[in-house]
Design brief:
Blueprint lengths: L19 H29 L3 H15 L3 H13 L14 H16 L3 H13 L6 E7 L5 E7 L3 H6 L2 E2 L6 H8 L3 E3 L18 E8 L2 E9 L8 H20 L6 H10 L5 E5 L18 E5 L1 H7 L10 H4 L4 H14 L3 E6 L12 E10 L2 E8 L5 H9 L3 E7 L6 E2 L1 H6 L23 H12 L5 E8 L5 E13 L2 E11 L1 H38 L7 E3 L3 E8 L8 E9 L5 E11 L1 H18 L5 H15 L5 E9 L4 E7 L4 E5 L2 E5 L18 E4 L5 E5 L11 H14 L5 H10 L9 E8 L7
Antiparallel strand pairs: 1-2, 1-6, 2-3, 4-5, 5-6, 7-8, 7-11, 9-10, 10-11, 12-13, 12-16, 14-15, 15-16, 17-18, 18-27, 19-20, 20-21, 21-22, 22-25, 23-24, 23-26, 26-27
Helix pairs in contact: 1-2, 1-3, 1-4, 2-3, 3-4, 4-5, 4-8, 5-8, 9-16, 16-17, 17-18
Length: 768
């Protein structure tokens, strides 16, 4: 029996090898096809008012009748429903159905991708390559208008690494597209020598803002191998496909991992660099506190590891072990950098890099704050041998000696200089004063200052120039020169040109990285403090114990999470109502952070207001469930709600998936198993159950959240049993002392929030 196309397994590769890559590609294609067919079937289900299975069968029959493939027909169905206002933005117009279908299929394939990189590859291969495009870059807009590379296709890894970060200060097309929120079409490459990634300087580019919900979330750069005419049709298709890219960029997880990003940047540097961890190594003002540990070395790049050699052999990584001679000076620089938020510099530190070896001075030392209690140490070495010497020789390919004559002689360049300036070796070399015709206008003054230093002050100098090559590419070239003097007059110059384009771009990326990570840390700290203050304001601890009607004594404690990201939505409430009854409640919003805390505030306030209606706990819980569903944005919560009646000592209670209460009576702990009811926010119109138990004088009721008992490798039942055993040991203590002791003995190890409430009925237990 011949299998149908829908049940075919992954095909063999081009050489008969199934291969993991071929199987993954087959799975992605199948998922994209299934997504498009399901979307079209959904449209037909709504239009024909038939079940989904009948709609899918109708789609197959219609494809056979028209002679179209099922995918093409599905694309037509979806495009027809979207309408003219959107169809062009998805890639085609009515008179070009083939392009419209291809664009719709591409959109489905892109939306099925599991990463931005995979989405970019699909966009290039299936949507952009037919237009002659050979590269695609997608950047995400992050804090302070930095751009962070999210995915590429058709791009070499080295080039992608050089453009990982684009700081907001970069002028030209990037800023125009991001600030003006309009596409930038460059049919003959960027004007005025502006730097853009891609093939040649004259190759066509298109920079398009990626928008979602009326805000620009990133930029896309589409590249061609050469000059290209970008007509209205091409621009329409590109704009539509980039809308799909914006959707992927918006739904992909934007969370950053600061330390891995820092590590990647440091590993790209060509000078020694170390990431320092100063957490717990400084005070609030950046000063070393007694007992604080010294700065730890979190990461060394390859250059630093080669220079330091065996500095870390036989011990943990620390600044003192790496630089035994000047570690205190470096630590002071690092703490000052964190305290001021500014880069700290030292011209030269005579450090001993490796114990029992020749001293290696640290030259041009810089310490940059990296946020989150971290700093980056950068330096150069002089006199290093071995690998350092080999690296220095390798770098000579970007350094070119030159000599100019001011007395009628020739200008002489080394062969490397022609490569730096993009010139043919057969061309005449350019004297230093004539470079003004080849540099950016903004750098004219810098060149003039260097020439004045050489000729008027007759001393050496250096400067950095942006040289515009004949093909429009811009290179950052450092010029260092010394005057040639005879009989008191300057007769010429001798010096070197050095192409520092890569290091300048890396420095800009590093600066942007640190600025972004600092902003992330500041925002996270602000959100944490806001969440904690809001939590403590709404759910304060009850010092000592509180007396309530009905001879009740109440003690409550709240312990915030140990880690800032764990601040959650625990709440408790003990409230005397006008009816004479007393509300006792505990709850826990799912999740952590400011969103959970604000959700907790909404539920706790709603429960307080609803309790004044006089209805039973079951009814209060049902209303609270509706509140969670309508205002929680998908949030769920557990809760227990109880009403104590002093008239008869009865406790009526209801639970929404919360942990069982404990009843301490006569020194023994009894677990009050709750009804098996759903969480708040799980199902609309849910009917909750309620139970009743009588309380006696001397009884103590314990309500708590999971942070008190939850352990990573144990079940909640074990935690409840452990809590019951501990409660029996301290049952005779006063309520405030009892909750403090249970918190001290808490077995939970998840660093989550913890709330605990003890309610005791005053009086002595009845005699035997």
């Amino acid at each position: 029996m011949t299998p149908s196309p829908r049940s075919t397994g992954p095909p063999l590769g081009a050489r008969g090898d199934p291969g993991l890559a071929a199987e993954n590609r087959w799975l992605r294609d199948r998922f994209a096809r299934r997504r498009l067919l399901d979307l079209a079937s959904g449209v037909l289900t709504a239009q024909l008012r038939v079940p989904p299975a009948e709609a899918a069968a109708y789609l197959d029959a219609l494809a056979q009748a028209t002679g179209l493939s099922v995918e093409d027909l599905a694309a037509d169905v979806v495009n027809a429903v979207i309408g003219d206002a959107v169809a062009p933005a998805v890639g085609g117009i009515a008179e070009r159905p083939a392009e419209s279908r291809r664009a719709r299929r591409t959109a489905s394939a892109v939306e099925a991708a599991d990463t931005v990189g995979a989405a970019a590859a699909t966009l290039l291969e299936e949507g952009l390559a037919p237009l002659g495009v050979d590269s695609l870059w997608l950047w995400r807009r992050v804090d302070r208008d930095c751009l962070r590379l999210a995915g590429t296709a058709g791009v070499a890894a080295a080039e992608a690494a050089a453009w990982q970060w684009i700081p907001p200060a970069v002028p030209g097309p990037f800023r125009a597209a991001l600030v003006d929120d309009e596409p930038v079409w460059l049919e003959r490459g960027p004007p005025g020598g502006d730097e853009l990634p891609g093939a040649g300087a004259r190759a066509a580019r298109a920079l398009l803002p990626l928008c979602r919900r009326d805000r620009t979330i990133g930029l896309a750069l589409v590249g061609w191998p050469g000059p290209t005419t970008l007509d209205d049709g091409v621009r329409r298709i590109l704009t539509g496909l980039m809308e799909v890219a914006g959707t992927v960029l918006d739904t992909d997880d934007p969370a950053l991992t600061p330390v891995p990003v820092l590590v990647d940047v440091l590993d790209a540097l060509t000078q020694p660099a170390i990431l320092l961890d100063l957490r717990d190594a400084r005070g609030a003002a950046g000063a070393r506190e007694p007992g604080a540990r010294p700065p730890a070395v979190e990461h060394l790049n390859e250059e630093a590891a080669a220079v330091l050699g065996g500095a870390f052999a036989g011990g943990g990584p620390s600044l003192a072990r790496a630089f035994p001679g000047v570690h205190a000076d470096l630590a002071r620089l690092a703490r000052r950098a964190l305290g001021t938020g500014r880069t700290q510099r030292a011209a030269r530190l005579p450090a001993t890099a490796v114990p029992e070896e020749e001293p290696l001075p640290l030259v041009d030392v810089r310490v940059l704050p990296a946020g989150g209690g971290r700093a980056v140490l950068l330096w150069h070495t002089v006199g290093a041998t071995g690998l350092a010497a080999a690296r220095a020789v390798a770098r000579l390919q970007s350094v070119a000696p030159f000599q100019d004559s001011l007395t009628g002689g020739d200008t002489v360049w080394s062969g490397e200089a022609y490569g730096i300036f993009g010139m043919d070796p057969k061309e005449a070399p350019v004297p230093l004063p004539e470079l003004r015709e080849r540099i950016r206008p903004d750098d004219q003054e810098a060149l003039a200052d260097l020439l004045a230093t050489l000729t008027e002050r007759q001393t050496g100098g250096q400067t950095l120039l942006r040289v515009v090559l004949p093909d429009g590419t811009v290179r950052h070239v450092r010029v260092a020169a010394e005057p040639l003097i005879a009989e008191g007059a300057v007769t010429g110059f001798a010096g070197v040109y050095q192409d520092v384009s890569d290091s300048r771009r890396t420095e800009a990326a590093l600066t942007a990285t640190f600025d972004h990570l600092t902003a992330l840390h500041d925002q996270a700290e602000l959100r944490h403090q806001l969440a904690l203050q809001l939590q403590q304001a709404i759910v304060p601890e009850v010092p000592g114990f509180q007396e309530l009607p009905g001879d009740l004594m109440v003690a409550a404690r709240y312990r915030p999470a140990a880690e800032e990201y764990r601040v959650g939505g625990d709440w408790y409430d003990v409230l005397a109502l006008p009816s004479g009854r007393v509300l006792v409640a505990v709850g826990d919003i799912a999740g952590h952070g400011i969103d959970s805390v604000t959700g907790m505030v909404a539920l706790r306030n709603a429960q307080r207001a609803l309790a004044f209606t006089g209805h039973s706990p079951r009814r209060l819980m049902e209303w609270l469930n509706d509140v969670t569903l309508r205002t929680g944005g998908g949030t769920t919560a557990t809760a227990v709600c109880a009403l104590y009646d002093p008239e008869d000592g009865g406790l009526l209670w209801s639970s929404a998936g919360h942990l069982p209460m404990l009843l301490l009576r006569d020194g023994r702990a009894r677990i009050l198993e709750p009804p098996h009811d759903l969480l708040l926010g799980a199902q609309p119109s849910y009917v909750y159950q309620e139970q009743r138990i009588g309380l006696r004088p001397g009884d103590t009721l314990l309500l708590y959240t999971d942070g008190l008992i939850e352990r990573r490798h144990a079940g909640l039942d074990e935690g409840v049993a452990r809590l019951a055993a501990q409660a029996e040991r301290v049952a005779g203590l006063a309520p405030d002392t009892l909750v403090d002791e249970l918190l001290r003995r808490a077995a939970g190890d998840t660093d989550d929030d913890t709330s605990i409430v003890a309610v005791r009925v005053r009086g002595l237990p009845p005699g035997p």
